[in-house]
Amino acid sequence: MTIGTLYFIGRGRGVRDPEMQKFYIATIFITTIAGAMYLLMATGFGLTQVQVGNQVLDIYWARYADWVFTTPLLLFDLALLAGANRNTIATLVGLDVFMIVTGVIAAFESVAAYRILWWGISTGALLVLLYVLVGTLSEQANRKSPEVARLFSTLRNLTIVLWLLYPVVWILGTEGTIGILPLYWETAAFMVLDLSAKVGFGVLLLRSRSTLEAATKPEPATATTG
Length: 226
Ligand SMILES: *C/C=C(C)/C=C/C=C(C)/C=C/C1=C(C)CCCC1(C)C
Known about the structure:
This is Rhodopsin. By secondary structure, the protein is mainly alpha-helical.
């Protein structure tokens, strides 16, 4: 995460346009926050225990503290690329925060059945969120230049695939109380997902400065005048 942060800072050097700077600022914050939360988890501070029936679950709460900030920032990057309006951004961020908060409830709930219920509510919010990405946001991105639209659809598809795996890892992992995936493997899976969804995402997004330039330019005039 830290290497990602340093790389993104390097990529952003010399960018003067305030609209373009937004991409770099958001992306740098994503890996910085995740890096700090991983440090918390590595030093044992980010860990707590929840009793469910006669089982004691190890819950890394720092994950949720990470995600509640980093997932809106990732969506902000996508929305910026698509040239989305405030309403669309607010809808996405609202759904996203709702998803993480209900995920936190699922993680800390002490009745196994209620954990699954809240997991279901959170997953429902994720599906609606992805629906907005595929619908409204893709429509808006398609009004941009072809290179911007192409980068948007790459990042959107990456986001859809990776984000859908989070609830799967969660329910199979210790949080799901079924215990199919031991804590070690769950932690490894979340790490790979986090690195791909944040550093991988950022590398693709910030790879081409000219594409970001095209994304921040006003939309090409359509043939409505005259
Ligand atoms: C960088 C971190 C990312 C992209 C995290 C994404 C996290 C999710 C999409 C989490 C979703 C969850 C549910 C849909 C159900 C409940 C459990 C969660 C919080 C893992």
